[in-house]
Amino acid sequence: MVYVSRVAHFNAAHKLVNPAWDAQKNQEVFGKCANENWHGHNYELHVTVKGEPHPDTGFVFNAKTLAELIEKLIEEPVDHKNLNIDVPWMQGQFTTAEQFAIGIWNQLEPAVHAAGAQLHCVKLYETPRIYVEYFG
Amino acid sequence: MVYVSRVAHFNAAHKLVNPAWDAQKNQEVFGKCANENWHGHNYELHVTVKGEPHPDTGFVFNAKTLAELIEKLIEEPVDHKNLNIDVPWMQGQFTTAEQFAIGIWNQLEPAVHAAGAQLHCVKLYETPRIYVEYFG
Amino acid sequence: MVYVSRVAHFNAAHKLVNPAWDAQKNQEVFGKCANENWHGHNYELHVTVKGEPHPDTGFVFNAKTLAELIEKLIEEPVDHKNLNIDVPWMQGQFTTAEQFAIGIWNQLEPAVHAAGAQLHCVKLYETPRIYVEYFG
Amino acid sequence: MVYVSRVAHFNAAHKLVNPAWDAQKNQEVFGKCANENWHGHNYELHVTVKGEPHPDTGFVFNAKTLAELIEKLIEEPVDHKNLNIDVPWMQGQFTTAEQFAIGIWNQLEPAVHAAGAQLHCVKLYETPRIYVEYFG
Amino acid sequence: MVYVSRVAHFNAAHKLVNPAWDAQKNQEVFGKCANENWHGHNYELHVTVKGEPHPDTGFVFNAKTLAELIEKLIEEPVDHKNLNIDVPWMQGQFTTAEQFAIGIWNQLEPAVHAAGAQLHCVKLYETPRIYVEYFG
Amino acid sequence: MVYVSRVAHFNAAHKLVNPAWDAQKNQEVFGKCANENWHGHNYELHVTVKGEPHPDTGFVFNAKTLAELIEKLIEEPVDHKNLNIDVPWMQGQFTTAEQFAIGIWNQLEPAVHAAGAQLHCVKLYETPRIYVEYFG
């Protein structure tokens, strides 16, 4: 079993807010992340698939194919967008790094599976100092 | 003459739009950066001052003092904010990396001067692949 | 289960020496790391906690809280210090990256647990080319 | 159990081609990686061993010893070489990152074992955006 | 005057050899870089243009336009190629980082000029530890 | 004129203290950097030389020669050492990044000159967030 990872970059605006709470409570819990007029990040995404190298290619999964899936399913709907407003599959959810990584997994997993491989991990850097990992 | 640089990080939302143009023209010129609902970045800021090491300290400029100036004058008004809406000294300006770097210079220069040093350069990374430098 | 990591930086002096050995033997085993008058590093620490996103926040663990725990329990006693002399919980131990990571785990684990989360991993870079990981 | 990793760098030329296929099929599958006159990479290699810190040293494995094994067994035969032509243990294999990581594991594992430790992982960056991991 | 830089990545094979010298002399001067069967690098290219922000856009030079020029004039002819064999504008020249940076400048300068800006610097990383800068 | 830079790494212990001041004054000015029992850093050094590519090699300066000069003149006396105690050419000076960069320049400049090139810049990172540049 070999694990193959592809790194992608995109940027987006978001804010963290629980609509059931008032502004003061949101500020207490989410701090500056609750600021009303949005903030944003350069996200760095690592997508890892696993499998055995194919005898005809030596590839577990063609990195070009993986890059194309990430571009179509994640970068196109997300890059230079507002995660709270513009991304259909994040509607009704917190746009924390945790929930966003789960959302990305849910978008990628069926496509990676259909392409004959196994998705292993979605790793998402929100900043160079905060990142999350989700393994399904 | 020795040049001393201090690196800071913050993140913010913005969009690029010329209010004299219609949406189509803005999209043509600014591309995804004109998306209506904002996007954002993790900015990385390098502030460089120059001078001769002081005989009592060996410092051109105390890096802790420099960090405090950057925190008070740049990070506090800008971090987790919307550059187009929330930052008084960017009002009426494009929030391109170019204009933002000039804005940062204008905030820092008098304070660095008052502290007895010379501001040399403001270098601003908008993404890991796009950065600007301004020397006053 | 989602894994959330926070990165912190600090620097410290240390040396590697087995007090039961003479200088020559220490030099043979530890090389330049045994130099008498200390050397030092900019350490980079990644602390990973795991759990399920909370339904009220979308957070596994508030990254701000995690940063505060790391600052209080690790950065304050360790930053700009001598690991062999100044850090109570490293007394009587080798200050190798391995032992230091275990020491960091032992400081953080009860506090992370008390805050309602699970510590998963302490990853410590001694230099950009040498790092260790400890999972308890 | 503590995991200790050492990072090494080298560069090499290679190309990806299945000799059973014609040029067009190779181009279709491998894209630019099949270009006839070779291309190359700055590889970054992370070698991870695991074990318990030794009571006499606090080391799981002396990082200097690990660096010497990597230099002798991997860097010397591979650095500034052509993976398809010059490296005996890659003959008859695809020089994909996947197969190359397996080849590196096979070179290192007996030597790490003989030195009294356990090889845990070979992680190989082909570019800053594509990397593979192999755990034996 | 503001300086705007765009970073690009590509990889290529090359070797360093003076055809007027025998193999021994080439080995003496160029070391492993003279190895017969090529080696290669992941190059990182920083292209810097300078000018004043345009009053209609706040841009010195549209970074998207700059990226397109770099892609067409540098990445397409160079990426996944052999610098000594495949790149017309490097024929008859050493493929040192120095000469390659001059070659890149000569390709980009007329196009940047035609687009109404001034090329300021070509910075080229051959490895993370060796880079060159050329200012025309 | 082309500028060629070589990056090196080493680590060392130091502290910042003015012997003419008492402990309180040192603490006020130098903060944690004055802690009595030393602290340390992983320094990153960039050495830049300038000149024209030689017609026989395409090199401004052989990067291998530059690496050897840096190793002999800087890394050997400094790596894993105490800057205040062990380095002859830092005696009687503050070990600030500023003074250390000047010291490094003074060691390298005659040797680079003797080797037929011009030293242009010494750039020294004390941490990833603080660096200095000295041009002689």
Instruction: Bin the helical content of chain A.
Output: 25-40%
Mean pLDDT of chain A: 97
Order of helices and strands of chain A: EHEHEHEE
Number of strands of chain A: 5
Regarding quaternary structure, how should these chains be classified?
homohexamer
Report how far apart the termini of chain A are. 18 Å
Shape descriptor of chain A reads elongated
Strand content of chain A: 25-35%
Uncertain runs of chain A are none
Question: What would you say the CATH architecture of chain A is?
Answer: 2-Layer Sandwich
Helical/strand content category of chain A: alpha+beta
What is the CATH class designation of chain A? Answer: Alpha Beta
Gyration radius over CA of chain A? 16 Å
Most extensive protein-chain contact, per-chain counts:
C-F, 22 and 23 residues
Q: Count the domains of chain A.
A: 1
